[in-house]
Amino acid sequence: MTGPVPDASHVPSLLMRQTLLDRELVKAAEQPVLRLLPWLDVVVIGGTAIIDRGPEIIRPLVEEVRGALRGRKLLILTGAGIRARHVLGVGLDLGLPTGALSALAATEAEMNGHMIAALLAADGVSYIPHGTVARQLATHLAACPAVVSNAYPPYGPYEFPTAAGRIPSHRTDAGALLLADALGARTLIYVKDVDGIHDETGRARTRVPASAVLGSNGSPVDRLAPELLGRAKHMREFQIINGLVRGALPAALDGETVGTVVHVG
Amino acid sequence: MMTSASRTGTGLGSLLMSRSLDDAEVLAATAALPDERVLPDVHVLKIGGQSLLDRGRSAVFPVVEEIVGALGSYRLLIGTGGGTRARHAYSLAAGLGLPTGVLSDIGSAVAGQNATMLGHLLAKHGVPVVGGGAMASLPLKVAEVGAAIFAGMPPYDMWQHVPDEGVIPPYRTDAGCFLVAETYGCHSMIFVKDEDGLYTANPKSDPSAQLIPEITVRELLARDLPDVIVERSVLDLMRHARFVRSIQIVNGLRPSLLTRALAGEHVGTIISA
Q: Is A215's Cβ below 8 Å from some Cβ in B?
């Protein structure tokens, strides 16, 4: 350093004067992380898997959600589906960057959320946007048994450059996992259209380590979700269930294993 | 049903409709498409929080002067860092056991204060502060006055990745500014800090630290330095960047280095992917 430059004025703290990049110092600030909402159940309703299948599939699943509201606090997150794939296709053809595609696809998950919330409105359920989820979720869940939001994370133009291709990597499954972990939720359930992750004989496995899902093709959850599970502070597992099978969602909410539990490891 | 997407030679439209979005063929098809730079002649500057703005007038005014001097010649997007108040709040929040998502939100607020302050200084030159999601008006502002200011923190909020250790958000203002440059296909990414560049250790605490004028991301990761001048997450993001394949770190406390970096000169440390 040259010249008589005055020192930065500091607010005293353990991290004062530091780059936040020194590993030892950052470690010293570590404390056990609180679960903000330890009673929260997070349910992700797949876009392609469930919502795109239309009323015959959506109505009975919504009835199951309605029946499960008593005594629970649910954060219902919706996936994007076929319209997101269409807008990705158009955007890619136009040469738009991944960060532009991310926001376009997220809009579709939001629209699906509005529809699911409207079906549950009479039970006190509303759609709430990202900012409200981040800051006023506790108030909303004190007033009503469930809220619906968009499972896509609010990455938009800040989506990461991807290792391969140009499709945004933070989609609904990853978004739900990041949010459930930040809130310290009790459970995370992905409602898909398959019984879970299948073994060689075509039967759904009951428990699978996240590391085994990472390397496998044909996982019903986005690749990033099991990867993020390995680093999560609270979430030790999530369950993938078949939303086409009646009774699966209420049973999973009761803590039963009815699909595949993907766990840390 | 499909429009333009199905007409591409890759058949991407039908792949997108039928395959997993993690499917290798889908990814390969998307990688092969040409891309468009959204703001190709814009330079993104990141003005450090602790390194510059917290120092007040003596450090900030010369940088503002250089920015004003560059307005006629360069189009700028100016992102701000957090700094010592962010560190205080992170330290307090981490001590309370709050999760990374809450810290991410706090970091945004401090970077926002710094953007507001810089905005007041540049107001007489017509340079506005733009909020999150300001893409709609950003091109107009950059075209009209040549620059706009934004808070550098990415808007990840409760969806921020968690670090391997502790709760400090791994993607902070360096990453946020880098991602703006990358997404909009900008011409360059210059980090304006209070050191001549990257050193082998933190030069503020280790007098034997040596300046590294040029290094690749791969070499830098391999050296596994205990402390680096840009967020490690930027190095990770750079590995897959399509547009911003190198960044430069310059010393904003030394006159004219920022201006020379805008002209493409190597005046600090250049890290390339």
A: no
| pLDDT tens digit sequence for B220-273 | 999 988 788 999 999 999 999 999 999 999 999 999 999 999 999 999 999 999
Name which of A128, A132, A167, A172 to mutate to probe chain B: the one with the most chain B Cβ atoms within 10 A of its Cβ: A167
Angle at the Cα of A80 from the Cα atoms of A79 and A82, rounded to 5 degrees: 135
What gap in Å lies between CA A146 and CA A73, rounded to an integer?
Answer: 6
Helix axes B100-122, A172-183, angle to 10 degrees: 100
Per the rule left: phi > 0, alpha: psi between -120 and 50, beta: everything else, A255 is: left
pLDDT single digits (tens) A16-68: 666 666 666 656 556 789 999 999 999 999 999 999 999 999 999 999 999 99
Residue A118 backbone phi and psi in degrees, to 5: -60, -40
Do A130 and B91 lie within an 8 Å CB cutoff? no
Q: The tokens of A163 are what?
A: 């290792």
How would you class B224 by CB atoms within 10 Å of its CB: exposed for 0-12, middle for 13-18, buried for 19 or more? Answer: exposed
CA dist B43 and B188 (Å) reads 5
Query: Burial letters for B78-91: b for 16+ Cβ neighbours within 10 Å, e otherwise?
Result: bbbbbbbbbbbbbb
Q: Which two tokens stand for residue B261?
A: 């970096």
* CA nearest to B160, candidates B87, B233, B79, B81: B233
Interface residue B68 vs chain A (CB under 8 A): no
What's the farthest any 2 CA atoms get from each other in chain B?
66
Chain A residues inside the 8 Å CB shell of B242: 97, 161, 166
Q: Which residues of A touch B130 (CB under 8 A)?
A: none
CA max distance for chain A: 74
d(CA A26, CA B187): 33
